[in-house]
Amino acid sequence: MTRQSNDPNGKLVMSRRGMLLSGATLLAGTLAASLCPTISLAAVDTGAQSRFMQLSSLLINHQLNPDVGARIAETATGEYKNFAGMLDAIIAIAEQKQAKTVEDFFGDIPEGELRDFAHWVIFAWYSGCSSEKRNAKVFTYEEALTFKTTSDILTIPSYGISGPNLWTRPNLPLSAPMPTF
Amino acid sequence: MVTKTSADVVIVGTGVVGVVIAEQMLDAGHSVLMIEAGPRVSRAEVVENWRNSPLGVKGDTSVAYPSRPWAPHPMGGEKPEDAYLQFSGPDAYDQTFIRYAGGSTWHWAGTSWRLTPEDMRINSLYGVGRDWAFDYETLEPYYVRTEHKLGICGPADRTQQWPQTGTRSAPYPMPALPFSPGEVKFTEVVKTLGYNNIPVAQARNSGMPYDGRPACCGNNNCVPVCPVAAKYDAETALHRLEKKGATLLVDSVVYKVETSAQNKIEAVHFYDQHKQSHRISGKLFVLACNGLENPKLLLMSTDDRNPNGIANSSDQVGRNMMDHPARSFTVTTKEPFWSGIGPVVNSGIMETSQGSFRSEHAGAYFRYNNFARNRFVTFAALKKGLVGKALDEEIRRMTACTADIVAAHEILADPNNRLTLSDKKDWLGLPKPSIHYDVGDYVRKCWEVYSQPIGKQIAEAMGATDIKISPKFNNSKHIMGGTIMGKDASNSVVDVDCRAHDHENLFIPGGGAMAAGACGNSTITMVALALKAGDAMVDQMRGA
């Protein structure tokens, strides 16, 4: 895990490469821990969360915050009975395709429960919420990926990226490069 | 002297109207006690409430201001039968306001258009609606005082100011805020159609601190809360008032106005959050607790001398409820506009609110909403099933290339648009407000023959590839009418100083007094009326 220089909040952000590499290690650790009768439920949950981060990094081609991921995973555990099985299944598809980006394997995820779950994970990271509804669980506001796609020009409302009267600038064309995040 | 039970001036409500009057009276040496139904909270708490709300409901301002059981206010997502506001009639008077210390300027946009001289003579000039009881030139000095009191920025160039008619006796205390790239582009587009998109006068600090508050840094969150208080809200004045000696009671719901044998106001009664009743006496009383709560309180306060409620011998209390019925055009464009840079409302086309057509139908004001579009487009982009680079690009495109244009209409005072007391009760057992509302043919005809065609014309000039029009009139949350002003006590509630015709020591300033509301946001006029009422109160206390 490395501290990223472009993390505005100074929080730990796991790089995509680091996440993919560490996923296997964490999975092995989790499996070993599950054989130990004294292991706590929290440790098992940590393993599932790590597995969830591995899946997330396969579904999303960006750096992801594990703290946010832990919150999403906690909700997913409650809302998807086959949470662990779906994690394994989608990761297995990606590994079989030796996927480096989501585009490499997403089309291979079968329609139905697995595809819906994959979309929900993407939804959660981009919107920062569990659903569109009023009673949605909120995983993050300022780290919702929707704001990252426009961070070169728009503030996240209530935060500031400008100074007094300093927002006059040329209009940015759509051809401008996507921010790196 | 002021105590917890008595003061020279008792003010019900701690919003902008109550606050400016309180300061006037304190500066004149009078004791002031203010009573607020709801809680007092920190700005940080409000900001966190909003940030922690789901993306799908961030457009609902009430998520930042949860109401307290004893002081309900409209909350989004309520079932109609459970909602605080009860409706009847063809249109819902679905307002947003909050019962918190500091009042609803917590979540206003800060937009501060003056009325025009013509707006105030709509009956004389166009034969519709009601004239104001005085003219624009009478109100103009109070507009100037309001602009300096609240810190309203605006252009120095007379051709860019509103209104173009009538006097402007002093410049704005701060220059206009700069336009964002999208606003520059929108201004250029509408210019090709012959319309002038001018800088909005707004209660936001422009390029400099003002009144102890910092300069706007474009946080793009004026609604529902400015995180740094660069936008004026009345909460920012409460500490200053307390330093000047004001007493502030919170979580105290006034439910009754008491009269003396001479039919003067003797006291107000409030429930605390434990449902215990208390009595506050005073010399002068001000009801400044919102355009809906004021008439509700008056109607609840019946006695033998006032069987229809306080200040209601004319039967006009609760009537003439007005707003600025609005329709929006959500436009998808080929080229990016990038809404969301700078404050949320920064410009407008006001000239379309004026003209001889007003004898036939309403005028309308058009504005380019400058809210960042992420929260409006993210779910739609996700529903397309895209992933990876395609998803990123679609969110970015939709954020850049969609925009909301809003047409806000002028409604006429109509006594049938009326607030009454519902038979449904709130947590304290007090009646909920019930409002019958119809935007009326004057507005509907405008939409059909004037504002909708103009809106479509603008959208097409913007390069629209898609236009979605809101299916019904929405409320602008500009509560007006209800305690309407007039010279004739038989058909109005308050006089030219917002003093109740029926009670010489009761003042009901604010939007409720407005006889005509035109198209521009009402707060600046509410405050101008408050300052005028404050002058009258100082004179009255002096025995003048």
Automatic annotation (TrEMBL), chain A:
Cited InterPro entries: FAD-SLDH_ssu, TAT_signal
Taxonomic superkingdom: Bacteria
Protein name: Dehydrogenase
From TrEMBL, chain B:
Pfam family, one: GMC_oxred_C
Record domain Glucose-methanol-choline oxidoreductase C-terminal: where: 416-530
InterPro entries: FAD/NAD-bd_sf (IPR036188), GMC_OxRdtase_N (IPR000172), GMC_OxRtase_C (IPR007867), P2Ox-like (IPR051473)
UniProt keyword list: FAD, Flavoprotein, Oxidoreductase
Names of the cofactor(s): FAD
Ranges of residues in domain Glucose-methanol-choline oxidoreductase N-terminal: 191-326
GO molecular function annotations of the record: flavin adenine dinucleotide binding; oxidoreductase activity, acting on CH-OH group of donors
Family that this chain belongs to: Belongs to the GMC oxidoreductase family.
The protein's name in its UniProt record: Choline dehydrogenase
